[in-house]
Task: structure prediction
Amino acid sequence: MLPLKHIGVPVAEIILTLMLSLRFINLVFDEVRNVALGIVSRRINWQQLTTMETVDVLASYIRRIFKNIFRHAEQISQAMIVRGFRGDSNTHKIYFLSGSSIGIADFISLFCLLGVTSAALLSDYFLF
Result:
């Protein structure tokens, strides 16, 4: 997308919007799945409903989906504000892990975990 930057396209804004959209798509699918499970669990007999009752039931579920989606969007917005995002996409940088970040502290922690686990297993073995 960098070539678009040379002709004046706000690339940083587009990238930020795409990344937020990717995060938000999961939430939308989860909400639709939860509402679909709610419909199935209520065991609605669709054949006995009139057309207006069917439209009313579907409208209430669509309303619930949008209400939950907007609630999640507000929570994401509040989380971004709390973490210091103020709306300028040029100052919001995304850092990808380029190399291994395993250090000596990680090895010491793993060694201690292995020691505690082996001590617990050996104590169970020798006590019985």
About this structure: Residues 2-96 form one domain.
